[in-house]
Design a protein that fits this description.
The protein contains 6 helices and 17 strands. The protein has 310 residues and is α/β, with parallel strands linked by helices. The chain starts with a strand and ends with a strand.
């Protein structure tokens, strides 16, 4: 059964995780989504298997942000990751198995590669985490040709298009289809990753009338990942997508909000966010009324939200 509601999606500030995504439109190596699905080979055919993928390109986006491009088995392969889901990367680091979730922006329109944008948490840059991020620093150390294991798809939410979401309480549950006309997203830091994946999927389909609002929190203006991409999407689709920023330490000239996302800020942005619900942070999971939950919670018919688990 399909239900018609309003949805909030949220993503939280992540310190030790290094999830981040860079979405951009490519003029090459892309194909219409429907055609790719029909003609391309899928890489992630078994969600319990590990697929070693080689690093084929690496770009320095900023002093602590990198774009990593990993090659798929052939140029005719797609990753095979449904919108709303993520992959796990795993590696043995200092004798221990480290596993972290990542959400690529490169969609299944892209053949032959998968892109990740990663914020590298270096040692001794955060006094609370002096060792930095184990996986992000490991990725930073990779040389062209080095491999890392991908596993997926993972997650209990799939965006089907035109406002339709397939939702499961857990991996053993049967999915339910819910229909939402409005998506209100709350993201922090690298929690923008799964949000951008859904935003991009909706906006590249001119027949998808779903309305999106994003409240995005960061420490400083310079920390805002994919700022240009988000602003460009808003400019191109002003009637479908709006973004509002808040930073802990605003510059002298700043037209957006300042401070942490809390109940008061959410209430102040009530009209902007459209939806009557509040939200949270982490891998895309349904929840309701609480910030920073990581488990599925049953919602009422008119109040529903998601979060991004880091």
């Amino acid at each position: 059964m399909v239900e018609n509601n309003t949805l909030i999606i949220t993503g939280g500030v992540v310190v030790v995780s290094s999830i981040a995504i860079y979405f951009y439109l490519r003029a090459t190596k892309t194909c219409p989504f429907s055609l790719c699905k029909k003609t391309a080979k899928v890489t992630l055919v078994d969600d319990s298997a590990k697929y070693p993928l080689p690093l084929i390109e690496k770009f320095e986006v900023s002093h602590d942000t990198r774009k990593f491009r990993f090659g798929l088995p052939t140029n005719n392969h797609i990753l095979g990751l449904p919108i709303g889901q993520h992959v796990y990367l795993s590696a043995t680091i200092d004798g221990k198995l480290i596993v972290r979730p990542y959400t690529p922006v490169s969609s299944d329109e892209d053949k032959g590669f998968v892109d990740l944008m990663v914020k590298v948490y270096f040692k001794n840059t955060n006094e609370k985490f002096p060792d930095g991020g184990k996986m992000s620093q490991h990725l930073e150390s990779l040389k062209i040709g080095d491999t890392i294991n991908f596993r997926g798809p993972q997650g209990n939410i799939v965006y089907k298009g035109h406002g339709l979401f397939s939702l499961r309480a857990d991996k053993k549950s049967e999915p339910k289809i819910r229909d939402f006309k409005f998506l209100s997203m709350i993201a922090g830091g690298t929690g923008i990753t799964p949000m951008l994946q859904v935003i991009a999927a909706i906006l590249r389909d001119p027949t998808d009338a779903t309305q999106i609002r994003l409240l995005f929190a960061n420490q400083t203006e310079d920390d805002i990942l994919c700022r240009k991409e988000l602003d460009d999407l808003e400019e191109k689709h002003p009637n479908r997508f709006r973004v509002w920023y808040t930073v802990d330490r605003p510059p002298a000239i700043w037209k957006y909000s300042s401070g942490f996302i809390n109940d008061n800020m959410i209430k102040a942005c009530y009209e902007f966010l459209i939806s009557p619900v509040i939200s949270i942070s982490g891998e895309l999971v349904p929840t309701r009324r609480k910030i920073c939950r990581s488990y599925v919670r049953t919602s009422t018919n008119d109040q529903f939200c998601l979060h991004s688990k880091s």
